[in-house]
Structures are given as C-alpha cells and as structure tokens.
Task: structure prediction
Amino acid sequence: MEFNSEGLRRLLGKYKFRDLTVEELKNVNMFFPHFRYSMDTYVFKDSSQKNLLNFTGTIPVMYQGNTYNIPIRLWILDSHPFAPPICFLKPTANMGISVGKHVDAQGRIYLPYLQNWSHPKSVIVGLIKEMIAKFQEELPLYSLSSSDEAQQVDLLAYIAKITEGVSDINSKNWANHENKTVNKITVVGGGELGIACTLAISAKGIADRLVLLDLSEGTKGVIMDLDIFNLPNVEISKGGDLHSQLSG
Result:
C-alpha cells in the first residue's frame, strides 16, 4: 500500500511503540517514497510466527560505473525502534544471490549497523545508507542466464519453504530419525545455484549426509566457495554415474 500515516497507525495496533515507529517511517518515506508497506506473517527460526509490518522496494547502488536497483525487504519488529529490522534481498526470478560477508544464501542481510543497533542513534534511513555503501563494495545480486531462470524460480520457492520450516523434507526427516535411518540429500548441479541450495539445506539441519553432485566442467571454484563456510556432513562429488550417485 502507499504510505499513509493513519493507515499504518491502525495496522500497528499491537506494536509496543507504535507512534515512534510511524514517525520514523515518515522519515523513511521522505527518502524512499516508492517503498510499499504491508502486514504479513513472519516465521522465525524456532517456527514461531508473528504478523509484522514490512516494506519492499529498490535501493540505488552504484557499482563499477553502473547504477543497479537492488530489491530489498525489511521486516519491522513489534519492539521497534529498540530492536533492528530483519533485512532480506528480494531477488526476482532472473537474479541470483551472491553469497558474501553481508549476505547469506537465503538473501538475509548482515551489517555492522544492525549488530550495533541502538535507539535513538540508529534509524532505518541510516541502515539503508550503510546497506547501499556495502553493496557498492560487493554487489549482492547478479543476472542469471536464461537457462538458469527456471531453476532459480524453483530454488527460491524451495529455499523459502526451508527457511519457513514448512518443507516436506523437514517432516520426513523427523520420521527418519525415529526409524534410525540415515537421511541423505543430493543436490545436482554446481555453480551458484548448487551452492545456494546446499547452504540452505545445511543451515536447516535436515540431512545427515548432504552431497553436492557437480556436473560442471570443473569443481575448483565450487570447492573453494563451500570451504569458506566449513560445512559439516557435506561432500562434493564430481560427475560420474548420475544414477549411482543419487541412489547410493
């Protein structure tokens, strides 16, 4: 919805510091009037849920002489402004996430500004300005080739299910543990998509054994990227007999 102070005030009826939050969002709207606001359900890592205000839009990032409009989504906690927002990239189907020191495989954004958040010194506009500055050093998204776009749609949907705790794999995993069987998951395909999916599954802890089956020409880059994260119970397999790799 468009920014509307009274409308937001009604939506934030359960927020502890509603008036402070609305006043701050007025300031955000002055700098970024194109943001769109809504109330949606946010699922936390412990599977608890809350209806939270969030807003989406793009921020301009200058990188190597070109300006990129980076799509983001910020969730405002009901204890705002005394707790920092939860920040994510919001890539489209033709965008891939560049995992780095400020962004994880699910697109969650990590910044010093968030870690050091302290009201009243810390404000959302200041957070977004630091976000822009960090993204100018390391662009968080890249364009996918047309052949990767269909895979990215499935990947984004799959990662969303994993991070929200509603994956069918998650429920099967508990059944496997009860039966004392080993739950093995094989990710087929290397490159950025393979890494992103591997990181998402590993973070959820739903597999006893996780195999990245790399069918690309070389594995060196993939191995180096995954080594950065020091993932337990993850192995990389190069090509070979696809059927035996998946059934083994």
About this structure: The CA atoms of residues 93 and 248 lie 32 Å apart. The longest strand covers residues 49-63.
